[in-house]
Amino acid sequence: MMKFGTVGTSWITESFIEAAKESGKMELTAVYSRSIENARKISGKYDASQVYDDLEGMAANEEIDAVYLASPNSHHYEHAKLFLRHKKHVICEKPIFSNTAELEDAYQVAEENGVFLFEAMRNIHSPNAKLLKEQVDKAGKLRSAVFQYIQYSSRYDRFLEGERPNIFSTDFSGGTLVDLGVYPISLAVYVFGEPEKVSYHPVMLESGVDGSGTLVMEYDGFICTILCSKIAHSFTPSEIHGEQVSLVLDHVAPINKISLVDRKTKKSEKLGEPLNENDMIYEIETFAKIIEENDLEAYHELTDYSRAVLRITETARKQNNIVFGTEK
Ligand SMILES: NC(=O)c1ccc[n+]([C@@H]2O[C@H](COP(=O)([O-])OP(=O)(O)OC[C@H]3O[C@@H](n4cnc5c(N)ncnc54)[C@H](OP(=O)(O)O)[C@@H]3O)[C@@H](O)[C@H]2O)c1
User: Fold this and answer.
1) Residue 144: CB within 6 Å of ligand 1?
2) Which of 74, 99, 120 represents a domain boundary (last residue)?
3) pLDDT value of residue 45
4) Claim to verify: residue 77 and residue 156 sit in the same structural domain
5) How many structural domains are present in the chain?
6) What pLDDT is recorded for position 138?
7) pLDDT tens-digit profile of 75-121?
8) Residues 267-317: pLDDT tens digits?
9) Most exposed among 174, 177, 289, 291, judged by the fewest C-beta atoms under 10 Å?
10) What average pLDDT does range 193-202 have in this prediction?
11) Is 9 a pocket residue for ligand 1 (Cβ < 6 Å)?
């Protein structure tokens, strides 16, 4: 079984560790935190044998095959490169990096060291995303889609109180498009491909990040509109509109239910298989299989998705002068 270490100690790391255990594909061996006490808390809870408060030390550990990175977005690139250079497979949280230059460089480092670099974009690995892709053909000619991830963040309350949580800071490569928008964008790229043109219309916060935004993705004869926000909340589903059939998705990350609604009869067919309670299990199964089988074709399909999504968010940011700290 593949042995792995973790970087970052918030709830998402624990969620990944639990999914890894459930998958039976990966065994937690080492935990890094800037605070050794925090590392011990996680290692104790999940029976990891080693703790680190220096990254180099964990990267040099020969027992570890892979690392899961859930550090702030701005740190992904340096952290990933360190582990890739030590020949560890890297599973990096979304958004993989701040820009495409970092991504291309890191893919090269991965290749030079004979390891894989994955983006933990959980929604495109779930079985219902595949199902959606298969069903889209039934809709007739596609004309429009509205995908949204609009979820009020508790960290916005802290922001309003004068704090600067990482995700609301350009220094940490934050903002709603790269945090929540990447889920609907990834799903759109997965289902429809890369758009011909994008235009982004953000609602800016005084810290220089987008709090809300609308991204228009233009395809030939079809427009997909992405709505994202961390400063408001939505109660409506996402939809794809074909000339014959509309597809209604309860959510984009993950998709639990899909309804196919016939335009003429208004009859609705419900689809979607019940998902595992922890949907991170699907990405772990995909990554582990690629590593086990050295499946370069499947790997390059994933790297193409990550490239396309990052190209889109980078273009959207450039259109609106949203500059991250590492780019200044
Ligand atoms: N897939 C998903 O569903 C999902 C959900 C949530 C988040 N994420 C992704 O996971 C990543 C982490 O998100 P998060 O909300 O947990 O971020 P965060 O709270 O800002 O930071 C994550 C971890 O990084 C370390 N850290 C915090 N501030 C730091 C700093 N200034 N310098 C260096 N390290 C610092 C902390 O670990 P230590 O103090 O232990 O070092 C912390 O636990 C992001 O890329 C996010 O997009 C994914």
Assistant:
1) no
2) 120
3) 98
4) no
5) 2
6) 86
7) 999 999 999 999 999 999 999 999 999 999 999 999 999 999 999 99
8) 999 999 999 999 999 999 999 999 999 999 999 999 999 999 999 999 999
9) 289
10) 98
11) yes
Which atom of ligand 1 approaches the CA of 16 most closely?
A: 1
Among protein residues, the one whose CA lies closest to atom 16 of ligand 1: 10
Sheet holding 197-204, edge to edge: 197-204, 210-219, 222-229, 142-150, 238-242, 245-249, 258-262, 268-271
Q: Is residue 299 part of a domain?
A: no
User: Is the C-beta atom of 279 inside 6 A of ligand 1?
Assistant: no
Tell me: do 239 and 263 sit in the same domain: yes
Q: Which of 71, 76, 276 to mutate to test the pocket of ligand 1 (most atoms within 8 A of CB)?
A: 71
- Does residue 320 share a domain with residue 176? yes
102 lines ligand 1 (CB under 6 A): no
Distance 242 CA to ligand 1 centre (A): 39
Whether 8 lines ligand 1, by a CB cut-off of 6 Å, is: yes
pTM exceeding 0.70: yes
Show the domain range for 320. Answer: 125-280+310-327
CA distances to 28, 30, 161, 269, 283 from 17, rounded to whole Å, are 7, 11, 33, 36, 13
Same-domain check for residues 69 and 160: no
Strands ordered across the beta sheet of 2-7: 50-52, 26-32, 2-7, 66-69, 89-93, 117-120
Q: Is residue 291 part of a domain?
A: no
The reply to whether ligand 1 has any atom less than 6 angstroms from the CB of 225 is: no
Question: 13 C-alpha vs ligand 1 centroid, how far in Å?
Answer: 9
Question: To the nearest whole number, what is the mean pLDDT of the chain?
Answer: 97
214-243: string of b/e by CB count within 10 Å (b at 16+)? bbebebeebbbbbbbbbbeeeeebbbbbbe
